[in-house]
Amino acid sequence: MSGMLERVDLVIVGGGMVGLTLAAALRNQGMRLLVVERAEPSAHCSLGIDCRVSAIVRGNVDVLRAMGVWSHLARSSPIARMQVWDDQEGGGIRFDALEIGEESLGQMVENRHLLAALRRVLLRSDGVELCSPATVAGVAWRRDGVRVELADGRALWTPLIVAADGARSWLRQQAGIAVWRHDLRQRAIVATIKPQHHHRQVAYQRFLATGPLALLPMADGLCSIVWSADNARAEQLMAMDEEAFLRELQLAFGPSLGRIEQCGTRTAFPLCSRLAHHLVRPRLALIGDAAHTIHPLAGLGVNLGIRDAMVLAREIADARRFDEDWGAMEVLAEYRNQRLPDVLAVMGAMEGFHHLFTSRLPAIARLRAAGMRLVGNSGPIKSLLMRNSTGLSLPIPREV
Ligand SMILES: Cc1cc2nc3c(=O)[nH]c(=O)nc-3n(C[C@H](O)[C@H](O)[C@H](O)COP(=O)(O)OP(=O)(O)OC[C@H]3O[C@@H](n4cnc5c(N)ncnc54)[C@H](O)[C@@H]3O)c2cc1C
After folding, report:
1. Which of 72, 123, 287, 382 is deepest in the core (most CB within 10 A)?
2. Which domains does the chain have, with CATH numbers?
3. Atom of ligand 1 minimally distant from the CA of 17
């Protein structure tokens, strides 16, 4: 049967930031790769900035730089410092990249720009085919390969198919992989705002009783906000006109950046933690949001996905070097074993922070404040936390 089919070395379903990172990492391996993306590139802007922005941690900036992607970014904005504080007990903590001998803790990018940079790199690569808009109509796993039928009638045969098709992954469902799911009962409101004073490359995170509010430094002194709030509160905030919303935002954030003068279009996303019961199956690997989603409070979702993509790319490239079957469980299990501890640690921490910071119990609030003081006053613990959260201490392959 496979003789009649078009043979490709890898099919990636989903051309979001993570799927395209995997393709970019493998583009010089002499493979025939096919990325199937259902949507045309589009963005929803707020004061001229994409509503969807990502804080890319230093370790992953280095990865994207080494792959030749970063130089194609239209713009990015460094995060030199972070200020985190607790609304209820008043405890706080500051992080400065200089404390770990770095110029920045990470960079803020607009998702549309990172996607465009990845696409640009891929369009110049022989062997990579970006099918967009396109969808997979059917997939059938066999012992020695996967038969993939695209909606336009093309039929493919590949040793491995990768699910990079986001939180509600169609491919994950086709494989019958169940998901652990925790509805966080919050929505994240995102928008761009214009504060009176320049943010001076500081990322602010304020933990309110109703959820965390982040102000993230973007180009031209503008800030992206990610305001996660209980569903009822989020609905209220979304229903307000700009003037009323600005008043609430000012009240919630305080005077650190002076008056908040303007707010662009707001969009709200429901928040849910998810973890697929299996990251791999024979001839299938899950990466990015198809494998796991977390609370955006630490801005780590796509960062985890980039690490998934890099580790999987390394395993595939190594298997090819040794003439092994890269769709076989032995190879895919290596990917799973390397990624699971990092994914579980980050998910556990995000769940813990979510509960810790939304608790209104006075004893928990005091514990939080004491914890922040302890970390803030202990140089080594703080440095370790910074190196871990920026991905600088993780063994992620920079290139494949
Ligand atoms: C408010 C908010 C703020 C965030 N901020 C940050 C941050 O600062 N830092 C960070 O690291 N993370 C952040 N995240 C998380 C981050 O956005 C996600 O982790 C990231 O987008 C996941 O990328 P992905 O490529 O895995 O999935 P997606 O971005 O969901 O991409 C999946 C792609 O697959 C395509 N697709 C879907 N189904 C199909 C199909 N059947 N066939 C073909 N194609 C398909 C989609 O069109 C899409 O292009 C944030 C999330 C939210 C909600």
Report:
1. 287
2. 2-180+272-389 (3.50.50.60)
3. 25
